[in-house]
Amino acid sequence: MNEDFLAKYYRIASNETSRKLIFLLGEYESFKATELIEKLDISPGTFYDALKRLKGIIEKADDGRYRLTNTGKRIYYMLLEESKGFHTIPSSMTSFVFSLPYLFPISFFKNIDRQGILMLIIISHLVLVGGMIGMMMSGLIPVVLMMLPPYLSISSISQIILFLVNSALVISLSYFLSSIFGYVKNSIRLCLGVLVSFIPIVIFSILYYVFYNNFFIKIFFIYYFLIYLIPLFFSFTLLTTCIFYYVNLRIEAAFMISLILLLISLIASLFFLNIIMPGYTF
């Protein structure tokens, strides 16, 4: 983080009106001036003085509503990070992570959070159904977050049961580790959010089936695992963002939980392979 950015951060962090403005726009994305003045319970003069101090951080869009700039979004995530734990400035990891919104889409989970519980249940069921269909078609073997190639011929019913048990395992581990390291703000939404983080893996399982005869059957296992790193990485970033959003944890702790799950996945996969294919290594 450069000195200019840190100076902006400290200036905002030390001013209550500026902090509230950043949090409001970070949480709800845009407001009209009258709406912000009403919500903050301040005079128009105080509001416009605050806007002058936040030049380059808050901008007025063509529709007349105020929004955070990219710099403003980074500062919002840092303020959010700081509010979750220690009274120190968040590390450079925070700035790095939230400067990559396509990899760590906190806005995605914010939008999900605004949906009713019924909509969340529908979304989670779509992920489960998509995953079961993908597993049945592809024959991939789920082991925590890893998806092993179909070394064994497994019946469709067994494949469905294996996927459901595996999904429950990942959700349980995520919730267990999150509750150990922090405070879970909403248990149901966290569990459904963890399930949503399976989307890249579900998509991969379907693509594996589509391209199996033309591509995957012709490559070595090592290349399969290198390709699988792509959806695994996106699921990892989704899982990290989900844990950060729903648990009172700093981003470093959310990373640690996701890394523990990856480590468990790798160890469990190697253990599974040694049982069905003694002596096999990646």
Secondary structure elements and their pairing?
Blueprint: H1 3-13, H2 16-28, H3 33-40, H4 44-53, E1 58-60, E2 66-68, H5 70-82, H6 92-97, H7 106-114, H8 117-138, E3 141-143, E4 146-148, H9 156-181, H10 187-196, H11 199-211, H12 221-246, H13 251-276
Antiparallel strand pairs: 1-2, 3-4
Structural Rg: 22 Å
Report how far apart the termini are.
Answer: 38 Å
> What percent strand?
under 5%
Spatially, the strands of the biggest sheet line up as 1-2
Whole-number average pLDDT?
A: 83
Fraction of helical residues: 55-70%
- Could you tell me the number of beta strands? 4
Helical run tally: 13
Low-confidence stretches: none
Kindly give the count of domains: 2
Order of helices and strands: HHHHEEHHHHEEHHHHH
| Structural class by sheet pairing and helices | mainly alpha
Shape: elongated
Major β-sheet annotation: 2 strands, antiparallel
What does this structure look like?
This protein is mainly alpha-helical. It has 2 domains: 3-96, Arc Repressor Mutant, subunit A, CATH 1.10.10; 106-276, no CATH class. Helices cover 68% and strands 4% of the residues. The strands form 2 sheets. It has a two-stranded antiparallel sheet. It is elongated. The chain starts with a helix and ends in a 6-residue tail after the last helix.
